[in-house]
Amino acid sequence: MKSTIILNIAATAFMTCFAGTQFVFAETLKISTFVPPKHAFNRMLTAWGEELSSKSNGELKVEIFPAGQLGPPPRQFDLVRSGGADIAVILHGATPGRFPLSELAGLPLSAPSKGDDSANRSLRLTELAPEYLTAEHDGTKILWMAVTPPLKIHAKGFDPSNLENLEGKRIRYTGKVWQKIIEILGASPVPVPPSQTADAMGKGVVDAATFPFEATMPFDLAPVTDYTLTPGIASVTFSVVMGNAAYARLSEPHKALVNETTGPARAAAFGSMWDAGEGHGRKYMEKGGVKVVQMSSSQINSLRGKLEKIVEASIQSVDETGMPGSAFYQAFTK
């Protein structure tokens, strides 16, 4: 009897001491990416994880599974929604037709009026996400969006500065926009996963590939590339998303921390990392013996007229589905 009274007193004292206190339990967020470990996405996600851990006193951490360990690019979105991963990097062009509004931000000649670098593109797209892009990312919480610097054409065995040399060539691409661009150039678009591109070029499966300079480093393209054509023509869009179930299981302090460390500011920081990587990527290619060539002004003007048709047709096709393609595009580019 006496021991029971003592236990009850101890329990009452404990509850009184911690009344109103919200207990925070340790969480490790499983992040899936399809890019190599040294890619900018993994570097930024690692930095984000370190920030989460520091600000939560080690209670909130991340574990990154890079290089498609949990699934290939087309499966990343469903992987998050099904709970196979808590967070994933989504390449919109890997699942054609699934993210039509998001992909409009990668159209040729399309950039916010504040600047056409990745920092401004990624910032603006993330700012617009709550109003325009939540429906096509249903089942997830958008942490931030990303738009690459314009992709260049990296060629093996021929000089692409003579655009006629592109005719009949097989070019690796991702997304409908780049498919149309390659067809306009008289070449054949071939879908090849990013991680398999160097092997495909080395074996002659494709004659060229489209990537920003930054991506040539983690995908090791210099050894299989002879020429790179500048300037870049069009961009590719991504999103970093968290499954609704994963977000819901977090404590309120952890949810607040995720909200605080993501969004437009994180998008701009990531875009700046990509922009800085463009210079490093170009040096890597040149050091590897790749000759960087450039289109002439007349070539660019001629191509510009052809690419405007892609922009108009892409926006119209989205509008015809009932989604606000024109409104979104105007908001992104203003």
A few lines on this structure:
This protein has 13 helices and eleven strands. The protein has 334 residues and is an alpha/beta fold.
How is this structure best described in words?
- By secondary structure, the protein is of the alpha/beta class.
- The chain has two domains: 24-148 and 236-277, 3-Layer(aba) Sandwich (D-Maltodextrin-Binding Protein, domain 2), CATH 3.40.190.170; 152-234 and 291-333, D-Maltodextrin-Binding Protein, domain 2 (3-Layer(aba) Sandwich), CATH 3.40.190.170.
- Helix content is 44%, strand content 17%.
- It contains 13 helices and eleven strands.
- The strands form two sheets. Strands 7-6-8-5-9-11 form a six-stranded mixed beta sheet, sandwiched between helices. It has a five-stranded mixed beta sheet with strand order 2-1-3-10-4.
- Helix 5 (118-132) packs antiparallel against helix 11 (264-287) and helix 6 crosses helix 12 (297-319).
- The longest helix is centred in the C-terminal third of the chain and has 24 residues, at 264-287.
- The chain starts with a helix and ends with a helix.
